[in-house]
Structure formats: structure tokens, C-alpha cells
Amino acid sequence: MDEVRVVLVDDQQAFLRALEAVVDETPGFTVVGVAASGESCLAQAAALLPDMVLLDVNLPGIDGVETATRLMTSDMPLVVVLLSTYDEDVGERFVADSGAAAYLTKSAFSSEQLQEIWARCALP
Q1: What ranges do the domains of the chain cover?
Q2: CB atoms within 10 A of CB 120
Q3: How many CA atoms lie within 13 A of 34 on its CB side?
Q4: Which of 14, 75, 81, 111 is a Cys-bridge partner for 26, taking CB atoms 3.0 to 4.6 Å apart?
Q5: Tens of pLDDT, residues 12-40
Q6: Nearest residue to 118 via CA among 10, 22, 34
């Protein structure tokens, strides 16, 4: 399997570093881009053509839910995972509203979760 190319999106540097550490330690995954806003995420996704986007819900400018909606309605075949501190039930509404593949709380994000979501949602 080729490496899964991932773009990370969060406006908090500390969490971006934590996301990057988890992705880096996950076999078969590599970070190809980092963004701090929805607008930057959309530009990076178009330029880098990642396989997966890990996307914070609360972003300046275009929020994560709207960014996910735009990504999911584009022609890019990718898996979008929304992340936040909200409870799972709130996160599931974000998934339903945006068409994202999954929602994880930031505290639950792990290498195992990343692999499980990819195995369940990856495009053929």
C-alpha cells in the first residue's frame, strides 16, 4: 500500500503538533500539508491532493463543517475526519451536515483510531 497522504487543519499550534506526532507514528501515513484555516485547507487540498484531511471544527473564517462540506462536494476523492472537543452526539451532527467520513473528539484521537477510520472509509 502507498502511504496515506494527510493534510492537518487546526488553528492551535499545540494541537497541530500533537496531530502531526500521531500521524508520523502511524505506519503507512504521512503529513503532506498543514493549515490553520478553512481557506488554507481548501487551497492545500486542491494543490496537494491528499487522501485524508484531519479537520478541526472550530476555525477562523470558514469553519470546519463548511470546509468539510466544500471538500466533500469537490471532485477530490478523499476522507475527511472532523475533530473537536464536543461530545460524540454533537460531532455526529457535524458529520451528517457536512458529509465527512467521521468525527473524533480530540482526546480520543490516536494512531489506532486513524488506522480504523482509514480501513473503514478509504476509497478503493
Answers
A1: 4-121
A2: 10
A3: 15
A4: 111
A5: 999 999 999 999 999 999 999 999 999 99
A6: 22
Task: List the CATH code of the domain at 4-121.
Answer: 3.40.50.2300
Give the 3-state secondary structure of 56-73.
ECCCCCCCHHHHHHHHHC
CB 99 within 8 A of CB 81: no
How far is it between the farthest Cα atoms of the chain?
36
Question: What is the pTM (predicted TM-score) of this model?
Answer: 0.91
List the grid coordinates of 111: 494512531
* Pairing state between β 52-56 and 29-35: unpaired
With a cut of 60, say whether residue 109 has pLDDT above it. yes
Other CB atoms closer than 10 Å to residue 74's CB: what's the count?
Answer: 12
